[in-house]
Design brief:
The protein is mainly alpha-helical. Helices cover about 70% and strands about 0% of the residues. The strands form two sheets. Strands 1-4 form a two-stranded antiparallel ribbon. A two-stranded antiparallel ribbon has the order 2-3. α3 runs antiparallel to α10. The chain starts with a helix and ends with a helix. The relative contact order is 0.16.
Amino acid sequence: MSATLHQKRGLLLGPSGWTAVAIAVAVITVLVPLLSLAVPPGSTFHLSDYWVTLAGKILCYAICALAMDLIWGYTGILSLGHGLFFALGGYGMGMYLMRQIGRDGNYQSDLPDFMVFLNWKALPWHWALSDSFIAQMLLIVLVPGALAFVFGWFAFRSRIKGVYFSIITQAMTFAAMLLFFRNETGFGGNNGFTDFKRILGLPVATSGMRVVLFAISGLTLVGFFLMARAIVNSKYGRVLQAIRDAETRVMFTGYSPLAYKLSIWTLSAVMCAIAGALYVPQVGIINPSEMSPAASIEIAIWTAVGGRATLIGPIVGAFFVNGAKSWFTVAFPEFWLYFLGALFIAVTLFLPNGIIGLFRKVAEKRA
């Protein structure tokens, strides 16, 4: 029996799990591109640019929900500020995309349009590497990762946890939102970045590029899911779950929770930043509203609705909530926020283990 358990841990997934992963990869890399690019627009089976972009956007949200599950579901750290890391990754990609506009902007200047409008004469210092794709990709990982590390170091070292930690993460993202709203920071103020033209020299608004960005987002989600499975099934992951359940006992057994909490916290922030970087070229805009407290709370809602400490649950929750949001905001735009609040209350009261927990309970009864 122990040999079988060891084998499953080594595989991360059983045969059915790997089959599901293979199907997901096939849908992402083959089926969706065919339905979008090969099927004529008049056909019933054609997948329009709108649906490809919507699916790609939700895939980015699912990465954030998965990152939240690692720290909340498996480590017991509820963050209400992960929207900050998502937005920082988005701004990092947005800076590169703004530089790629070149002289095709409204003012035909080497500076982004908003800088010309605000009478800037030169790029600020933090835009120095923005014309390099490789440099910006590194900054997308390093800047949010460094911020998360420093913040986590002081917070976890001071043993701040529970609701107090949630409050200070919310305060952090709110302060960052107010900072990015200011025009003098060089991040576009209230309007942020938009009107993107190219990425790596290729037009960003074509059907082909939308499919490519969708596929990259999907494969990134699959990769992060497999990485998360490897983490939670390892000794490191079992220590994280022990910290969630009884941190004091973990300390008495000789483990230092600081290193474990800080490492998973930083990894989770980097995952959100990468999701933000993939999100921006697909939706075509990034502004400080992505740092709003509501945006961070929604990430927690996706995780709770899908089912914490399941990995697949937060992904399901992200698709379910955002799919419902897309429909409700068109059919009943004035009632969307009421629906979201009612959904969260209903899940908290009647489905504490989320959608995945409900499916598991039904499967157990049938068995």
